[in-house]
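SEQUENCE-TO-STRUCTURE ENTRY
===========================

Backbone structure tokens: a row of integers, each naming the local backbone shape at its residue.

Task: work out the structure tokens from the sequence, keeping to the layout shown below.
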Amino acid sequence: MVDDEAYLAELVATALRYEGFETAVAHDGAGTEAQVAAFAPHLIVLDVMLPDGSGIDVCRRLRANGLRAPVIFLTARDATEDKVAGLTVGGDDYVTKPFSLEELVARVRAVLRRSGTGAPGATLGFADLEIDEDAHEVRRRGRPIALSPTEYKLLRYLVVNARKVLTKRQILDHVWEYDFNGNDGVVQTYISYLRRKVDAFDPPLIHTVPRVGYVLRTPDRPDGPPGTGKAR
């Protein structure tokens, strides 16, 4: 994710991570080329207006150096000539600011499908637990686990943030999307529902951090570094 506005770049990156994508951020052309070399992305969201030049020029250089990953240009410009210029140098799509995060995520998935790269995040996994997002199915050790829509959404949020301690308020805000007006006791209730189903297998994966919240981790890594569930 490349944008000279740090807040916007982090906002989009956070939205993509929430959807299961592993995401790196850059704020200028030099940083973009360095991140591409280090991160080897499946796709780049690239702002056209950068402090050290044009994103179109950055794309041209990356293509000349052999980059095959699709590029979605992101810009405040909406003139036809700008769109043509971006697509001519190897851009795959063009999103004009202002935009919705939902639209951008949908464009990312669509471009990945068209490119044949596949959409990272179609399957999320942690330990022996798998979430098939296309089929909306959950399996542990290859055995299916039946979940309600809310249980599924809660488990997905835990997997995406595996090894990261989440507070009850964070879970409430993300899973219930600010629409739930009750107290956070509902989180404890649904965690107990998940444990009966997911932790019916050994080892248990859902752990309580007293006076803080919950974390998805394996018992042999209680102090493991925070991270996100890898999309695979």
Q: What stands out?
A: The CA atoms of residues 33 and 170 lie 34 Å apart. Helices lie at 6-18, 29-39, 55-64, 80-88, 101-115, 149-160, 168-175, 185-198. The chain is about 40% helix and 20% strand.
